[in-house]
Design a protein that fits this description.
Strands 13, 14, 15, 16, 17, 18, 19, 20, 21 and 22 form a ten-stranded mixed β-sheet that branches. The chain has a five-stranded mixed β-sheet with strand order 6-12-11-8-9. α2 runs parallel beside α3. The chain is built from ten helices and 22 strands. The chain starts with a helix and ends in a 28-residue tail after the last strand. It is globular, with a radius of gyration of 28 Å. 20% of the residues lie in helices and 23% in strands.
């Protein structure tokens, strides 16, 4: 009777419970006391809350206070709170459901309650675990949707890669919030385990591991955690660049460390690239800066993955954490390419060595091997059909943007949806990266990690339904939510006539090492002999049907019908 019966139906949650009449208020109080007595000696019964998310007000504050006081008489050490986080000082509240910033208002350590949500795909690989009365509702739903989209065969990889992204995001954001709030002692993750249509846990529904094991998770939210001051958008380096990084330690262990020692090492290309030690005066029960490290990154002809590892020791106690960095060549040779009369609305603005060509140039023997553009028209289509090759920076007509959820808009095209709230099409669940010469030697292991964070973070993907649907085999596939299974991509190639085009929604800003390298790799592939697109462009693509002719008018044939 507690769920909703305190204050009826709230506009947001729409809990359809009637307002209790006077004769039932005492019954609510009786039920509450019986609940407290039932678990009075249970070691896990520490916090008592009168309902869930029913707002900051109630029509029955005296009943709420009677429940509070009777609980304190039965169990003085218990924590008791009104329904919605303790924000109303006129209602009971021994603790506050608040963000970590509350640490500035508290003298002692703070525990972050209910820290965010990150939803992976239902995992078809564990379907066999459901036996007896348990039914894999979410898995069956995901299978139905994927089958209707022609993506059923990808479900195991979708589950795996969405769990990789879930770990990447949860780890990075939890380490950041602990780093930035010195007295944050720990984090109560929103859901420790998956639950049906909300696979938001770090464990599956059977309390078994998903992507990483418990020991790896303890590096992020154990009693002692090592941290750095580099965020998601700060993990890509150039050869010969100086890596500067601050290392911090968060120590809330019992007993705390006294005089720990820290050493660090930078590993890459199968060897130790740099190492050192940091001296510091340790302060327990807070997060503190240990010192700043510097290391010159060795250059290389092709990109590689480097790992920064920190090790903290005191006697038999040892703590480790490590972070990935992607190193790209300092100089990347970009083959000569023309920029074809685009409106310069995309990352093409950052090109410094591109020149414009006219429509007449495309129709002549002077036509370049490869053309860059963010606009398609009849002249480019004729150029492709005769054997030309185009790299098209996808703009509005080919993209599928969406609004951020819950105000979490930073990196919304890279990260998982923060919760399973409608609209269910809004949100991505990871990527699948194919082995393809177009990517050169980009290290990826089939998944877009932080080496592609900046190219994806603020860039919506290509809507493949406009270009052939589920039959298209992209080089970088974006995973829609499992509720809709919309076919999406960030990089795909198509043949047309004797030529073809590569379409990308990646932000290949040329001020970024990864942007320079990926564009260079795409252009080398497009201009070389290995250019053999895996997909054929449909004769009539809606997004290309409004192409303009050389006079700026929509292309039509002599019958007046719009050309495909």
């Amino acid at each position: 009777g507690m769920l909703g019966a305190w204050s009826g139906m709230s506009p947001w949650h729409r809990y359809a419970w009637p307002e209790p009449s006077a004769q039932y208020r005492q019954k609510l109080k009786w039920q509450w006391d019986r609940t407290v007595m039932r678990d009075v000696n249970h070691p896990s019964a520490a916090i008592y809350c009168m309902s869930n998310e029913l707002g900051k007000e109630t029509l029955y504050p005296r009943t709420a206070w009677r429940c509070y006081r009777s609980t304190k008489r039965i169990k003085p050490w218990a924590l008791v709170i009104w329904t919605d986080g303790g924000y109303n000082p006129t209602l009971p509240g021994d603790f506050v459901n608040a963000e970590a910033k509350t640490d500035r208002e508290c003298r002692g350590p703070v525990i972050q309650h209910e820290y965010r949500w990150w939803s992976s795909y239902p995992d078809v690989r564990i379907k066999g675990k459901y036996t007896g009365a348990m039914r894999p509702y979410a898995i069956q739903f995901a299978e139905t949707v994927a089958r209707s989209r022609g993506l059923f065969h990808l479900l195991p990889t979708m589950a795996q890669n969405s769990q990789r992204l879930q770990y990447l995001e949860a780890r990075g954001k939890m380490e950041k919030v602990r780093r930035d709030h010195p007295t944050l002692a720990g984090i109560c993750h929103f859901t420790a385990m998956d639950s049906g249509f909300s696979p938001q846990g770090i464990l599956d529904e059977f309390y078994e591991r998903k992507w990483v094991d418990a020991a790896t998770w303890l590096r992020t939210w154990g009693d002692v955690v090592l941290l750095i001051d580099r965020d998601f958008d700060d993990r890509v380096l150039s050869g010969r660049e100086l890596l500067n990084c601050t290392i911090l330690v968060s120590d809330f262990s019992h007993p705390p460390l006294k005089r720990p020692k820290l050493r660090w090492e930078l590993l890459g290309r199968g060897r130790k690239l740099a190492s050192g030690r940091l001296g510091f005066a340790h302060r327990p029960f807070r997060t503190q800066r240990m010192g700043r490290i510097s290391a010159t990154i060795p250059d290389a002809r092709k990109p590689y993955l480097a790992k920064l590892r920190a090790i903290l020791n005191e006697g038999a106690r040892s703590y480790v954490n490590e972070w990935d960095f992607w190193v790209f060549p300092r100089r990347t040779g970009v083959p000569t390419a023309a920029l074809y009369h685009s409106g310069m609305r995309t990352w093409l603005r950052s090109l410094s060595n591109a020149t414009s060509v006219s429509a007449s140039d495309l129709d002549s023997a002077r036509a370049p091997r490869v053309v860059l553009s963010d606009e398609m028209d009849q002249a480019l289509m004729r150029y492709i059909k005769r054997g030309g090759r185009v790299v098209l920076a996808a703009t509005e007509d080919l993209l599928k943007p969406f609004h951020p959820k819950l105000g979490l808009d930073v990196g919304r095209y890279f990260f998982l949806p923060p919760a399973n709230y409608p609209p269910f099409e809004d949100g991505h669940s990871g990527t699948i990266v194919a082995e393809h010469p177009m990517l050169g030697d980009l290290p990826h292991w089939g998944f877009a990690d932080l080496q592609l964070y900046r190219p994806i973070a603020e860039s919506p993907p290509i809507d493949l339904l406009a270009l052939g649907g589920s039959s298209v085999k992209p080089v970088i596939r974006a995973l829609s939510t499992y509720f809709v299974g919309h076919p999406l991509a960030y990089l795909a190639e198509f043949s047309l006539g004797r030529g073809g085009m590569i379409i990308t929604a990646l932000d290949l800003n040329q001020s970024w090492p990864e942007g320079r390298y990926i564009l260079s790799s795409i252009l080398r592939y497009a201009s070389g002999r290995s250019f053999h697109p895996a997909n054929r462009l449909r004769p009539k693509v809606p997004a290309l049907a409004e192409m303009k002719d050389d006079d700026g008018k929509a292309g039509r044939n002599t019958t007046g019908k719009r050309q495909g």
